[in-house]
Each structure stands twice: as C-alpha cells, then as structure tokens.
Write a structure and sequence with these properties.
By secondary structure, this protein is of the alpha/beta class. It folds into three domains: 9-92, Orthogonal Bundle (Arc Repressor Mutant, subunit A), CATH 1.10.10.10; 99-173 and 279-309, Periplasmic binding protein-like II (D-Maltodextrin-Binding Protein, domain 2); 174-277, Periplasmic binding protein-like II (D-Maltodextrin-Binding Protein, domain 2, 3-Layer(aba) Sandwich), CATH 3.40.190. 43% of the residues lie in helices and 22% in strands. It has eleven helices and 13 strands. It has helices at residues 9-21, 24-31, 35-49, 65-93, 105-122, 135-143, 160-166, 211-218, 237-245, 255-258, 291-303, and strands at residues 54-55, 62-63, 99-103, 127-132, 149-153, 167-182, 192-194, 203-206, 232-234, 250-254, 266-272, 276-284, 308-309. A hairpin with a 6-residue loop joins strand 1 (54-55) and strand 2 (62-63). This is DNA-binding transcriptional regulator, LysR family.
Amino acid sequence: MARRPDITVSQLGTFLHVIEEGSFTGAARRLGVSQSGVSHSIASLERLVGHDLIHKQSHPLQPTGPGEVVLASARRITFEIEQLHSSVEALHNTIDESLCIACIPSVSQGLLEPFINEFNRQFPQSIGLILEGVEEEVKDWVEGGIVDIGITTDTTIINHSYWHDNFSWIEIKDDEIHVAMPKGHPLEETQAVDIEKVPEHPLIMSSGGCEALVHHILSPVIEDETAFQVDFWVRNTATLLNMVEQNVGISLIPELALQKKPQTNVVLRRMNPPVHRTIIAFWPRRQGISRIGGIFTERLKAAHTTEIRD
C-alpha cells in the first residue's frame, strides 16, 4: 500500500496565517511568498485532509468544520515549535559564568526588574547576584571587585578625572526629576515649579541615590551653599512619600523611584526648567568587562538610547 504524503509544518503554518490574516493576500504578505504559493499550499493540505478547510466565499476567510479541527492542531503544533526554538536558543546562549550587579533602589525596582526577567530567559542563570545600595556603596562595590557592574545616577561630571581613570560607563536612561508635595500645598497651583522655589520649603530627600544629585540641581540657585542643608534624609522612597503626604515637606523624586508607589494625597509637578538625571552602568576600566557583562550592557544599550563613554 502506497504511503500517503505527510502533512507538513509549513502547510499548517500557512493555513494558520490565512485564517489569522483573513485572506490569501494577507498571508502571502506576512509569509513573504507569492499568493499562488499560499493557494497551492492550502490546496495540497485540503487534499491530504480530504476536506475543504476554508469557506472561500467568506470575507474575511473563515474555517469550515474540518478546518476548525485542523486549525486547533496547527495552533498547538506552532506553539510547540516556538517553544522548541526558545529551548534551543537557550542552549546556545548558555554561558559558564555569572554576572554580579549592584544598583541604587530606584533602578532595581523601576528599570531592572522587567529587563532582568527577559535577560534570564535568554541567558539562564547568568545573573548571580544583585545588590542594592546608595551611590557610594555601589561605586565601592564595583571598585572593590565585589560586583562586576554598577548601575547608578551619573555623577561623573562632579569628579570626572576620577571616574575616567577608574571606570568605563554607558548611559542607559534619562530620568526626569519631579517635585512631590502634599495636596493643597501652595506650589500645587503651578504647572511647573521654578527651581529657585524649592529651597524655600522643608526638603525631604532619598539617601538611596540622590545626595550628589540634589546639590548639583540646587547649587545654582542657593546663595550660601555651605549653609544649605536637606531637612530630612530618608532611605526608603515609600517612607519619603508618606512624609510628603503628611505635609512634613516637599521632595525631588526621580520618575523611576515613583513606579509601583501610588500616593493618593501626593501631587507631582515638573521642574522649571525641566531637570533630569542620567542612569549609567559602569565597570572597572583596568579589568574590563566579562563576556556576559558585555552582552548585558549591549542589551541595555539596545533597550535605551545609549552611548559608551570613556
């Protein structure tokens, strides 16, 4: 007895695309083939099944009863093949080294969580350790070799020669700074808060990555910089926002730090002129960067508008 030709994955994929696109033309465009090629593939599949699979007169095209049966199998098989491709890719991406990272809290919560999940999916077990700390801690951990890469607020402009001598870095993201105030605060009436107005009010600041930043932002508008001081330093952003809500003071908060921290009685205003901080990833200049570290930073570079700096 002659063996019947097998139904191919390609035929099932073509059928699935025809139904999803609702036309032979749409399926051909999506697959990058000719419409006649799609028609030939569907005709061959129908001969193998022994039934018409598509109501040819419907617009968009719809599956027949037998077509529904084949469609369910096509979807399942296509999904399993995609899973197989992902598994094979993971095998190719296996790297016998892990990466240790340190970052400031707002970066961990607002920037790294979704990125790390995707990176670990593509490179299983490649992230060995993630530490959270303030700016100085992150810098010290990188310099001391405790971690491979640090991710923090860019303060290289404050001591550029030191950074240039000791680190290489990559800019990841511009992060806008907002003024946070309680509802009913006098500054709420303005659409954007003039920078010179900020020192006129009690100031609460996060010590988790803003110490150098706040002085850099406010120094141009402070007459006596030596006499200026932040009224309250708070490490936890949620605590800071609670203090703002209770009218203890106002705060300058980066947008990343506000993610997943809704506050019903806190009002946010932009600064005038707008103020941003830059998030950077950095590593020791002399040691260079490992293979997995290079892949990690390149993926960050691809995910955001970045430029490697020396």
